[in-house]
Amino acid sequence: MTGPHVRDVVIVGGGVVGVTLARQLARYHLDVLLLERDAEVGFGVSKANSGIIHSGMHADPDTLKGQLEWPGNVGWLELRDDLGFGFAQVGELLVALSEEEFPTLDALEAQGERKGVPGMTRWDQATIRAHQPNLSREVLAAVWAPTAGVINPYEAVLLIAESAAHNGVEVATDEPLTAIDPPADDPGAPLVLHTPQRRIATRFVVNAAGLFADEVARMAGVGTFTITGRKGEEYLLDRRLAGLVTSIIFPCPTATSKGTLITPTFDGTIMVGPTAEATDDKLDTATTPDGAAQVFAAARRLVPTIDERDVIAEFAGVRAVADTEDFVLGPTARRGFVNAAGIQSPGLTAAPAIADHLVAALASEGLELRERDDFVPEVEHPVRFSVLPDEEQAELAARDPRFARLVCRCELVTEAEITDAIDRGARTLDGLKFRTRAGMGRCQGGFCTWHCLELLAERRGCALTDLTKRGGDSWLIRDRDDAPPTPVEVGERR
Amino acid sequence: MTVTPHTRYLASRYDVVIVGAGPAGMAAAVAARERGAERILLVDREADPGGILLQCIHAGFGLHVFDEEITGPEYAGRYLEQVLEHDVDILTDAYVMDVSPDLRVKLMSPDIGVSTVDAGAVVLAMGARERTRGAIRIPGDRPSGVYTAGLAQKMVNLDGYLPGRRAAILGSGDIGLIMARRLALEGVEVVGVFELLPYASGLTRNIVQCLHDLDIPLHLSTTVAAIHGRDRLERITVAPVDDERQPQLDAGWDLDVDTLLLSIGLIPDAELARTLGVQMDGVTGGPIVDGCMETTRPGVFAAGNVVHINDLADWVSQEAVVAGDAAAASVTGAQRPRQDVRIVPGDNVAYVVPHTVASDGTHTLSFRVRRPITGPTLLRLGDVHRRKLRAAVPAEMVTVKVGPKLLEEVRDDVLRIDAVPAEEVAT
Q1: What whole-number distance in Å separates Cα of residue B208 and Cα of residue A335?
Q2: Which B positions 230-269 lie with beta carbon below 8 A of chain A?
């Protein structure tokens, strides 16, 4: 026993839902702990997805997905203004490649209107061509929805978590939940959780454990659903192709997926994907030749000039799909244990609304919400040197020499941005990359990796050999001395 | 090299600004000065001039330029001495943000902040970058332990760390071969070098000295078909490839390695050239240049690996001498030689640099063949010259010197370069 301290809420999982809920709870006088098993928040499902805030028209309003999609979209604008992560409403174009798809356009447009999504219009071929000249001539008609946007999801998660922490939430990384004690005889007794580091007593637990939410629910004795993985592969194209499309291009959806999209990412690269393949292994984020073939064949139907040879990076993410195919939100048979599970598309979009939904659910379960008057919604926005006007760049460079030293030249990231990201909590090479884009460009870290590692080691006061790519066993380099060189016999010249 | 004299104050105008202080930039600086340019600024983004030479601690440099075999850092040191003797301003730890069409060079460095200088001429000497995993799209996981060979070379040779314990190398480019040897000497087990093509991409001397001498196997027509490992690299699948270079997975095998080095080619680091809007060569990935190494934008010259990938630093420097000399000549008002012969790649020639030459000058034409010819090769320069080569393989750049006597015959015309098996022609 560590003593009588009882938390108000423990959130299991530092993905987009976990951190957004943590930040909303930080508005009240509450003792909140967020547990994340990875080295940094957002390293799971939230890191590897299409990075799209959907227009609001896609999900069926009779589902939780449909009810929370549009309010979630609206919620992101406020979060962006408070926190300054990359998010731009570039709009989406849902296109029909044949007349058979016209009814789908009609249905989705009508669905959006029913949900209150503003600004949708139908475009004919001439309008489509005028706005997106690189689209295939086979595109016959489209629904234009200006409310859709592109976001840097990892950057958003990191800044939301930072804001939550600023406002008093304890964010614990590298700390997986390992067990939940069975209910005590006293129904008013707190839940007791275990991690490798400690024992935690809490009145409420929110299960935002993403791909492993079914396992966490089973730990609590309320395993009423299962989560299966549905993998999506994404391919990033060289920055040179910026402007190929200026809005998100959607084909008409299928039963399991919104199809292969072409997305102008916030940072100016073009991304194509995702696939949608069921996977037994929830940690399987391998890309495959089949996946690539599928993505490029589908992408070329929309934009014929898209070419595999322009790929600079690829990744895969796994969607956490509940057997209900809907979000699993709210109280359970276990008193104090609340689910936030099955967060598949449009989960990222809906996250702010999911957080509000959960706050209301916790309140109805007896969590007292007394608003704090000292909640600070903003964090200091990270500087993005590369996008600043020339005069501002010059001013920063004159004021602080670290702004005048370029670390990543493909993405124009300065030493000041790197050190700021480390001071904000970056602990791993990937954490640094997701915060600053250092290493995301065309050379993929060939030139800047070492400089990033040196700055990480220096500012965190650790050895270079202690650093990892993304925590766990992802070590990067080793000391020469830990295995003395073996004498090599040099053979005769041939 | 310990202390680098370092410019803290910039003049507002330079005759020649050189971007990159590697074997190209330093050679261009010396040549420009010798040709009479007064004020020269040599800019490099690293703390010390020398570029990639500094991490190339192996021998094999200098045979052509200094007539003796020295290491990369020694080669850089010798050039730096010359640069300093020639009173060239050096600005290191600096980045060229932009070059405007009227040759205003915008620079940024911690010492000077953001500053703009006017240039009479600019020499692009940025070198190359390495192709990455993304460029060849190896499927699988994305663990730590997959490095480009050059990054591994830096961590081992300059910083004294090792990338792992058991390594495989994909690609038989020179850096990969040299790193295979380096890692083996450092006690890292090197399980093999895998090459997609049916022939090696590196120099023969490196195959012999880096692989054969250390009993490191070279697997031709074989590639890494998948990468496995959640956190750290654990395993790779290697497989032979078919005629379309597609891996035959059923004939593949797995290797337990914690490190994979990629030596899969270099790409001219020519973004600055692209933003300047100069015409590019789709094959080399570098700018199109004339016999003075001038790009299609007057006053902007380029040399070395930013133009095309060279096998040897010595050749890079020799090419940069042409660029530096011509850049200086352009600001001292010398008569421009008229570029009246267009050079085009013909049979089995991938590219030729330069792309045009002046018929009244002497030029070195550099090219690579597309397909390897392992036996006697006929080199044809239009109808005006024929020469036998012992062999011609893509891994080894071919150079041929041409002078006015030959070029006069193709003035205002095209000179087509062919490299074909000699026996085919004989029959």
Answers
A1: 72
A2: 230-232
- Give, as one character, the DSSP assignment of residue B243: T
Q: How far is A40 from chain B (nearest CA, A)?
A: 14
Q: Do B130 and A479 touch (CB under 8 A)?
A: no
Mark whether A54 is an active-site residue: yes
Same domain, B259 and B278: no
| B113 shares contact with chain A (CB less than 8 Å) | yes
Q: Is residue B7 part of a domain?
A: no
Q: Is the pLDDT of residue A187 over 90?
A: no
| CB burial readout B389-404, b (16+ within 10 A) else e | beebbbbbbbebebee
Instruction: List where CATH 1.10.10.1100 sits in chain A.
Output: 385-478
The backbone torsions φ and ψ at residue A315, rounded to the nearest 5 degrees and listed phi first, read -155, 170
Query: In this predicted structure, what is the pLDDT of residue A494?
Result: 36
Q: How confident is the model at residue A256 (pLDDT cuts 50, 70, 90)?
A: low
Q: In this predicted structure, what is the pLDDT of residue A341?
A: 98
Question: Which residues make Cβ contacts (< 8 Å) with residue A193, sequence separation at least 6?
Answer: A10, A12, A35, A177, A179, A180, A181, A199, A200, A201, A202, A205
- Contacts B164 to A, Cβ<8 Å: 477-478
Portions of chain A given CATH number 3.30.9.10: 90-149+228-319
CATH fold for domain A385-478: Arc Repressor Mutant, subunit A (1.10.10)
Q: Convert B209-233 to b/e letters by CB count within 10 Å (16 or more is b).
A: bbbbbbebebeebbbbbbbbbbbbb
Measured between beta carbons, the chain B residues lying within 8 angstroms of A491 are 212-215
pLDDT of residue A398: 94
Q: How many domains does chain B have?
A: 3
Residues B169, B102: one domain? no
Residues from chain A contacting residue B212 (CB–CB below 8 Å) = 491, 494
Average pLDDT, whole number, for chain A? Answer: 94
Q: How far is CA A474 from the centre of its chain?
A: 20
Across the interface, whether the CB atoms of B130 and A491 are under 8 A apart is answered no
B63 with B210, same domain? no
Express the helix, strand and coil content of chain B in percent, nearest 5 each.
25, 35, 40
Q: Which chain B residue has its CA at the smallest distance from A488's CA? A: B185
Provide, rounded to the nearest whole percent, the portion of chain A with pLDDT above 70.
96
pLDDT tens, position by position, B326-346 = 999 999 887 788 999 999 999
